[in-house]
Write a structure and sequence with these properties.
four-stranded mixed beta sheet; alpha+beta
């Protein structure tokens, strides 16, 4: 075969494959990917010969080709329809067995190959670390039971050591887990609390290019002075002392080079590990590792964008701090990888407490508690991670709050419900506490409110009675919430986590600090603020102004309704399917039913005609008119049924 003939044949094959692909997509009425459709057409073209050759042989073995009329043409049309039917069957089978998106395409595979290799290496490294520290049995779901304290202690120690060796992302994960007293046993919280976010400082030669790229100029031009030796070095960023041209001392927080790629790769591994462990182990399911991993990944991604931290810092500072000072950011110099903020001078909180004595510790604890409760209940913008490392004692005796990578926000309705919750707690009113709690969290369809009220009463009797300790008060409250299946919104969960973290900080800051009395005192002060004469007058005036227009229209509307009832003209209109989505659903359902009926009818009629003897001979010795019509009806029935099936498979995933 010469080259022009080969080229013409290849072109004809390509055209036929394209025609098959387009016809199959149009007849099914569903959009398929180009790769999937092309592959189905190629398979159909390859199967056409073996499947139709017996029919063609029967046709060519007779003299039917010499018969006049439309019989041979009709048979050719039938064969073409059968050829088009083949890719349709392949596409429907593929839709059922391999839904779109379940298997990545060749382009996605090619793009992700390099990342997969890098992730596999990192995954292998993390697995070796886990097995080296004795976590192998737990990864296989065969470790010690978590209801045994000795097993919990061993697992906690092994987990801390493994996370410490895992690097920045896993150290951060351990620190986050150490604040989750609502989920983890105390052994894990205590052990993971020992993780330190320290790291060897990166050399100035690696940090300077980041500063120049982010600030748009040499460091010595942007700042009047800049110390090359870092004040502190963490796993994600390093902090440097500097001075602006205005003479103000600032702290410059610079992100480590290439840290984003490392964190992104590790977050993907954390998500995969969480999914595997929650699926295959008892303790993974008990802890809800998937949810933990998702929340941790979102927090880490925010922490890598210093512009978010600068905005959080400005929002909290705008709410007012009283005796607590917040560093203000220099927004003009803050970028995604560089944060420039006011420098606060003071001492670490733990050292200041040791030097200040018992009374000083209680005073600072009272100030810190008042600050955070006011942020949560009044301002609605609060620091979500008040652990001792984020607090310092300033030179003027006040407190400074640092690290605003994690900040929570509450709307007015949630703050009002939380205030009612705290006031009811102060009165030790279980019914009021339960009602306020169910306003804070979404009310489930089925809940035993009486049992929840009793649980809240027992909680208050245990923690609010005179002479009782307040240790783990907020932790126990969170356990009650989760035990009754209440879906806590993320912003409310941030409140509980912040209070649980603050509880541990206050215990460290001032042993013996009476958290209950101080919270009650805050509630009493806040209640007085909310219920003074002026605020009550303003509230009543606002409600009356809202109700007056309704009250003016109410008598006229009541009179019109009464008159319509009296004269028998009272009617009620109900609009069905007013929503476009409802109409679209019903229309699609009717289409599916209609196609199903038509397909079944065509199939039954085709079978009946094929079983009917006699009739005009379209092609003597080959096919009668009844048989030809029956074959066409069967093909039409198959097309309609395939269209219904592909619609069912596609709708199940939408």
């Amino acid at each position: 075969m010469d080259f022009p003939t080969t080229l013409s044949l290849s072109f004809a094959i390509v055209v036929m494959i394209v025609v098959l692909a387009v016809a199959a997509r149009r007849l099914l009425g569903v959009t398929f990917g180009v790769f999937r459709t092309t592959l189905a057409a190629v398979l159909a073209f390859a199967l056409t010969g073996p499947m139709l050759s017996p029919v063609m042989a029967q046709f060519t073995s007779t003299d039917a080709r010499s018969e006049p009329g439309l019989g041979p043409l009709w048979l050719i049309v039938l064969l073409v329809m059968c050829v088009v039917l083949i890719p349709m069957v392949i596409l429907v089978i593929a839709e059922a067995l391999v839904p779109p998106g379940s298997v990545p395409g060749p382009i996605e595979v090619a793009r992700s190959l390099r990342g997969r290799i890098s992730r596999a290496r990192r995954y292998s490294q993390i697995t070796r670390i886990a097995f080296r520290h004795g976590l192998g049995p737990y990864l296989r779901g065969r470790g010690d039971r978590l209801d045994d304290r000795g097993g919990r202690v061993r697992l906690a120690r092994a987990l801390r050591a493994a996370l410490d060796d895992g690097g920045v992302t896993f150290v951060k994960l351990g620190q986050v887990l150490s604040t989750r007293r609502d989920l983890l046993p105390g052994e894990f919280v205590d052990e993971l609390g020992r993780l330190q976010d320290g790291a060897a400082p990166a050399p100035w030669e690696q940090i300077e290019p980041v500063l120049v790229a982010e600030l748009g100029g040499p460091v010595d031009e942007v700042f009047a002075e800049f110390a090359r030796r870092p004040l502190a070095s963490a796993s994600i960023a390093q902090a440097y002392a500097a001075r602006l041209h205005s003479g103000e001392d600032v702290v410059v927080k610079v992100q480590r080079p290439a840290i984003r790629a490392v964190v992104a790769r590790d977050l993907d591994i954390v998500a995969r590990l969480a999914d595997t462990l929650e699926t295959g182990t008892r303790w993974g399911r008990a802890l809800g590792l998937r949810t933990l991993a998702d929340g941790f990944a979102a927090a880490m991604r925010e922490e890598l964008d210093f512009r978010i931290e600068a905005g959080n810092m400005a929002a909290v500072a705008a709410s007012g701090g009283g005796a607590v000072t917040y560093p203000s950011p220099h927004t003009g110099l803050c970028t995604e990888r560089v944060l420039v903020m006011q420098r606060l001078t003071g001492d670490p909180l733990s050292g200041a407490i040791r030097d200040g004595g018992h009374e000083r510790g209680h005073e600072l604890a009272r100030t810190l508690l008042d600050c955070l409760l006011r942020q949560i209940l009044v301002e609605g913008v609060f620091h979500a991670d008040p652990h001792p490392g984020n607090i310092m004692l300033l030179g003027d005796g006040g407190l400074g709050l640092l690290d605003f990578g994690s900040v929570g926000r509450l709307d007015g309705s949630v703050r009002a419900a939380l205030r009612r919750f705290l006031i009811a707690m102060n009165r030790q009113d279980p019914l009021g506490v339960t009602d306020a709690l169910l306003e804070v969290v979404p009310r489930p369809e089925e809940i035993d409110e009486a049992a929840l009220e009793r649980a809240m009463g027992q909680f208050m009797a245990r923690h609010l009675a005179p002479g009782t300790a307040s240790v783990q008060m907020f932790t126990d409250l969170f356990k009650i919430v989760t035990a009754y299946g209440l879906a806590v919104p993320p912003e409310v969960a941030a409140v509980f986590r912040a209070l649980a973290t603050l509880e541990g900080t206050l215990v460290t800051l001032a042993p013996g600090f009476d958290l209950i009395d101080e919270a009650r005192a805050f509630a009493a002060r806040h209640l007085v603020e909310q219920l003074d004469t002026r605020s009550l007058k303003d509230e009543v005036s606002h409600e009356i102004a809202t109700l007056l227009p309704m009250l003016r229209r109410l008598p006229r509307r009541v009179e019109r309704i009464a008159s319509a009832v009296e004269h028998g003209r009272f009617t009620m209109n109900v609009r069905l399917l007013a929503d476009e989505r409802d109409r679209r659903f019903v229309t699609g359902l009717l289409h599916q039913v209609l196609l199903t009926v038509l397909g079944a009818t065509a199939g039954i009629m085709g079978v009946v005609l094929l079983g009917t003897d006699g009739g005009p001979q379209v092609m003597p010795g080959v096919v009668s008119l009844y048989e030809l019509i029956g074959f066409n009806l069967l093909v039409i029935s198959a097309i309609l049924v395939l269209r219904v099936l592909v619609g069912v498979f596609r709708r199940d995933r939408t």
